[in-house]
Design a protein that fits this description.
By secondary structure, this protein is of the alpha/beta class. The chain contains 8 helices and 9 strands.
Length: 245
């Protein structure tokens, strides 16, 4: 089995080297239950697809140094297209059986990959989200960001008849079958509701597992603002009204 790790990057010179090293180093020998209730270990191979979304802070120069590394593909956008655009570019370049989205800002820990992959390897689900609100270790978030996140997740649950706790999570994991059915057009923060709406409207149920989370401050480069919530809300509403595909 091959895991494709998609890393969208925009001006992350302070963290990009470390996150790439973490993804390369994480243990992907994953214990799973077989159909006969025996435990076995599955070794998961990895490829890393990094999409630089028009960085101007030196990130691109660092990424140039990775071009010769095996199982690492670097793609450069000439102009900023937003996280959604970067993920869509990366998704189309992947060759793995399973895809995972990894932010470059060190808020999410690749050591959680094993628990994220287990439900897929054990055929319990084709889509897994890592939830920051199901009891994993977590650095305290901004209160109003939490309120906004939970409100938008609540709207998702009402519109799409599900019981998610963290629609906005970075860690979204899905099989090649699911990936091939996606058609993402949202360029910025509309990405998370768009991919979630498309997955749910395609008939897949999302499995959630608790993950660790270490949120960063705005002084450290955090980019989301309250205005992005309107984009998320509109995307959820649009797909609910128009359907997919």
């Amino acid at each position: 089995m091959k895991l494709s790790v998609i890393i969208p990057v925009y001006n992350e010179i302070d963290t990009i080297e470390e996150i790439v090293e973490q993804v390369q180093a994480v243990n992907l020998d994953i214990p799973v239950w077989t159909d006969h209730a025996d435990e076995t270990t599955v070794h998961v191979h990895r490829e890393i697809v990094i999409v630089d979304d028009g960085s101007t802070d030196g990130t691109r120069a660092y990424l140039d140094t990775l071009s010769s590394q095996p199982n690492v593909l670097v793609i450069f956008h000439e102009h900023n297209q937003g996280k959604g655009g970067a993920v869509w570019t990366g998704l189309q370049a992947t060759t793995g059986d399973v895809c995972i989205i990894q932010d470059a800002d060190l808020e999410y820990d690749p050591r959680d990959y094993a628990k994220l992959l287990q439900p897929i390897l054990e055929r319990r689900s084709q889509v897994v989200y890592g939830s920051r609100f199901r009891g994993g270790p977590s650095k305290a978030m901004f209160f109003w960001h939490m309120v906004g996140n939970r409100f938008l997740t609540f709207i998702t649950n009402v519109f799409y008849n599900t019981i998610l706790t963290d629609m906005e999570t970075c860690y979204k994991v899905f099989t090649r079958e699911v990936a091939d059915k996606l058609s993402l057009t949202a360029s910025g923060w509309g990405f998370d509701p768009e991919i979630t709406a498309q997955i749910l409207l395609s008939g897949y149920r999302i499995y959630e597992v608790p993950i660790s989370y270490s949120g960063r401050e705005f002084t450290e480069g955090k980019k989301i603002s309250w205005r992005d919530g309107f984009t998320v809300l509109w995307t959820l509403t649009r797909y609910r009204l128009t359907g997919y595909p």
